[in-house]
Design brief:
Rossmann fold, about 35% helix, Dihydrodipicolinate Reductase, domain 2, 11 helices, about 25% strand, about 350 residues, alpha/beta
């Protein structure tokens, strides 16, 4: 466990009980970003034992497993049969989620899957049906929800500080490429769809425009939204931008009584009442290193996931949220292709 937590204990959920048996966790995926982050986050927890790492490359997998004293596997089903983990964390390349997730669901082992859930709605439905038939714990890592500014935004809205919601805007972009023409929309802007519905309620319709640069697919998208509560919104997402830019991510929600702004997911939150020239602003303090680290939103999400798993309850964010984001993405693609607004259930 990182010493940083002893410096800034309030950044982390304090529901961990060291008197309980440690959960046995396996990590499937050895990628340089989320594979490594999942391994780090689980290995630092005193309530978890990382028992196995699964990857395609035997050498790379052994290297990752050795970092945490776990055993290395190349077959996820064989790993489950031998290790009997309490939870398997699946963080594979974005286009390669379906087959491995299906095989793991069929073992009956609780799962945490990275976003996107999958790229195909029929595959999403099949995975959910297989999981539901087993009453399986199936969480998805929409970790943006756990950032302090986002939680403050949710609290402000629930408390009625914004009054009636009127509009919401989401902008998020950086470098990106993929062989799939709609990767930006499905694998990255899924966070936007999830966040907007998490904060503002269900989206009722979408109307989309998308770029069509040679060999780039729909690398930038602009989508007009209408919510069921009659608020309107926009989602602008791009793989033609840069994560080096300030305000790479901006979320703004306005209501009849005030406005909230979230910058760069973890950087800052502000609330300003209508007609008031004074704003309330949160930014991570001097010792709050974890509060300003984006990848530590995974740690906070794991707090909630593991607490729910131990309690025998549903995951804090079920994989159905991944299916919903995918549904909205496909509706946006249909809108662009047909040139009309598309209603969603």
């Amino acid at each position: 466990m990182s010493d940083t937590y002893s410096v800034a204990p309030t950044v982390r959920n304090e529901e961990i009980s060291l008197g309980e048996p440690r959960l046995r966790v396996a990590v499937v995926g050895t990628g340089t970003w989320w594979g490594r982050q999942h391994l780090r986050a689980f290995a630092e927890r005193p309530d978890v034992e990382v028992v196995a790492v699964v990857g395609r490359s035997p050498e790379k997998t052994r290297t990752h497993a050795a970092l945490v004293g776990a055993r290395a596997y190349t077959d996820p089903v064989a790993m489950v049969e031998r290790e009997h983990p309490d939870l398997v964390s699946v963080c594979l390349p974005n286009l390669g989620h379906f087959e491995t997730t299906l095989a793991l669901i069929r073992t009956g082992t609780p799962l945490l899957v990275e976003k996107p859930f999958v790229f195909d709605l029929a595959e999403a439905d099949r995975l959910l049906a297989e999981a539901d038939s087993r009453d399986l714990f199936l969480a998805i890592d929409f970790n943006h929800r756990t950032a302090t500014p986002v939680r403050m935004a949710h609290q402000a809205i629930e408390a009625g500080r914004l009054g009636q919601l009127v509009y919401a805007t989401w902008r998020f972009g950086g470098e990106g490429s993929s062989p799939h023409p709609d990767a930006n929309l499905i694998e990255t802007q899924c966070h936007g769809f999830d966040m907007l519905e998490h904060l503002c309620g269900p989206i009722r319709s979408v109307a989309a425009e998308m770029t069509e640069f040679a060999d780039r697919g729909h690398s930038t998208v602009a989508i007009a939204l209408r919510f069921t509560n009659s608020a309107v919104g926009t989602l602008l997402g791009s793989y033609d931008s840069s994560y080096a830019y300030p305000d790479t991510h901006r979320l703004e929600i306005g209501g009849t009584l005030g406005r909230i702004v979230v910058r760069d997911t973890v950087r800052s939150f502000e609330f300003q009442a209508t007609g008031n020239e004074v704003r309330e602003v949160w930014e991570a303090g001097y010792f709050n290193d974890l509060g300003r680290m984006f990848h530590r939103t995974l740690d906070r999400h794991l707090d909630a996931i593991l607490a729910a798993l131990r309690a025998g309850g549903p995951p804090p964010v079920h994989a159905r949220a991944g299916r919903r984001a995918l549904e909205l993405a496909h509706a946006s693609i249909e809108s662009f292709q047909t040139g009309r607004r598309v209603e969603v259930a």
